[in-house]
């Protein structure tokens, strides 16, 4: 059986008891007790029913609380493109930040900023989602997305002037790595082995930050710090120490501010290679190598400083979310976000109330609340009590909603990769609506096998096929 057909076609030969499709696993076991058979058509109807309920639940949630939306397009059959709308929000039951698909609308015709925006707005209207609740747009750096006039962001900002454009830092650092990698052409000589050893060390900082930014857990609270660290890791290798101490990561890269060739840090392996092979290498080759190494660093820093959001107020103030900065961050950072996104403050709360909670937070021992994921940390902080009363009622909610702001598009791309080609050779007959239903159900947080359904829900799912025939 071809893997591309398994999600729906495996229903054909199985009773509901033995199906292994995780998104219908629990339903399968429960409905088996009622002797319900489930072939392909009935299985499709059940999956669509599950996804419809999931979409309705998600739509109701984000109509009442802050969230962010991310999207990207993929080529479909003909001239159509699919635009999965990935919502990042706080689950009110678990207080965890998660990403879920709201829908996968089809853009027919040109994928202009206006047309893509219209797809998003249509979904917002269908679920009565106020634009004020949308904190940010997550997308790649294509002009059709980030354009302030005709791009999707431009159209969204006219609906909500405070909306934030989450810039794609992960792809920027990856592109910088690619651009500098092209300098290998300069090294087409007998020094290739030396060059390879140099590149292994020089590219390591790019790999490290790209790996971290692919994390499913929110990293907005450390993004500014990580980006500055990347710049510093590269600059200390070729910029004079006195210049860097004086001007930091924005130091001028004129030649007089750079280290001498013999003082450039090229990595342990490359340095050892030179020490062992120097007598066999021409001096001109070594000079060419150090010049190219310096060009590598200069090109990297020039590109990164031009493209990365190193002076972005949102990312800078987001450090207040990190408990590691509990004693050093100021309330002004929290106030910045409340002014930028008024929806963060509940109608019955005041800025003064929030300031008192922040002051209390700074004076509270939260060591027992620290978790690996920042959303779980703030969920633990929200459960701290004094007597029978919670210590914090406002601050954790504000911090959790801020964690929905994307630090990269990785959360969207993970979901989006499942639908790179809707009509592939393995899924030529899979309808858009069926694929959308599968992915919506799959994108829900947690394991599908752990989901519980009430008797009423099971009864509705049992009759889903009959309702689908009427429609």
Automatic annotation (TrEMBL):
InterPro entries: HATC_C_dom, RNaseH-like_sf. It holds the Pfam family Dimer_Tnp_hAT. SUPFAM superfamilies: Ribonuclease H-like. One of its GO terms (molecular function) is protein dimerization activity. Residues 388-443 form the HAT C-terminal dimerisation domain. This is HAT C-terminal dimerisation domain-containing protein. The lineage of its organism: Eukaryota, Metazoa, Spiralia, Lophotrochozoa, Mollusca.
């Amino acid at each position: 059986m071809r893997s591309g057909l398994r999600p729906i076609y495996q229903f054909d030969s199985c009773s509901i008891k033995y199906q292994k499709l995780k998104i219908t696993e629990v339903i399968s076991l429960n409905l088996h007790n009622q002797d319900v058979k489930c072939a392909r058509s009935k299985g499709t109807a059940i999956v669509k029913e599950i996804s419809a309920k999931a979409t309705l639940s998600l739509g109701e949630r984000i109509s009442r609380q802050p969230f962010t939306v991310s999207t990207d397009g993929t080529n479909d059959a003909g001239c159509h493109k699919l635009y999965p709308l990935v919502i990042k929000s706080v689950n009110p039951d678990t207080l965890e930040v998660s990403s879920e698909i709201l829908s996968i609308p089809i853009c027919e015709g040109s994928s202009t900023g206006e047309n893509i925006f219209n797809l998003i707005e249509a979904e917002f209207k269908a679920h009565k989602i106020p634009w004020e609740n949308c904190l940010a747009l997550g997308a790649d750096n294509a002009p059709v997305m980030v354009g302030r006039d005709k791009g999707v962001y431009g159209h969204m900002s006219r609906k909500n002037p405070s909306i934030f454009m989450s810039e794609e830092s992960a792809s920027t650092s990856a592109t910088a790595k690619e651009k500098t990698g092209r300098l290998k052409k300069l090294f087409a000589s007998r020094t290739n082995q030396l060059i390879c050893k140099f590149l292994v060390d020089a590219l390591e900082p790019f790999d490290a930050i790209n790996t971290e930014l692919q994390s499913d857990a929110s990293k907005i609270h450390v993004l500014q710090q990580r980006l500055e660290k990347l710049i510093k890791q590269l600059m200390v290798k070729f910029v004079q120490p006195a210049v860097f101490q004086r001007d930091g990561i924005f130091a001028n890269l004129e030649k007089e501010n750079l280290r001498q060739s013999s003082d450039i840090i090229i990595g342990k392996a490359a340095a050892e290679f030179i020490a062992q092979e120097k007598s066999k290498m021409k001096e001109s080759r070594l000079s060419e190598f150090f010049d190219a190494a310096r060009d590598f660093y200069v090109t990297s820093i020039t590109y990164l400083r031009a493209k990365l959001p190193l002076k972005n107020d949102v990312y800078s103030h987001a450090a207040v979310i990190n408990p590691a900065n509990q004693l050093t961050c100021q309330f002004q950072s929290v106030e910045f976000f409340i002014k930028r996104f008024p929806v963060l403050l509940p109608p019955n709360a005041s800025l003064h109330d929030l300031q008192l909670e922040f002051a209390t937070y700074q004076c509270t021992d939260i060591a027992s609340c620290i978790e690996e994921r920042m959303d779980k940390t703030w969920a633990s902080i929200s459960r701290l009590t004094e007597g029978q009363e919670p210590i914090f009622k406002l601050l954790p909610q504000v911090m959790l909603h801020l964690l929905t702001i994307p630090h990269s598009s990785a959360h969207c791309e993970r979901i989006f990769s499942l639908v790179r080609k809707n009509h592939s050779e393995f899924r030529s007959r899979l309808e858009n609506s069926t694929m959308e239903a599968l992915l919506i159900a799959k994108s829900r947080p947690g394991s599908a096998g752990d989901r519980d359904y009430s008797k009423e829900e099971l009864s509705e799912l049992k009759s889903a096929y009959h309702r689908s025939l009427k429609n």
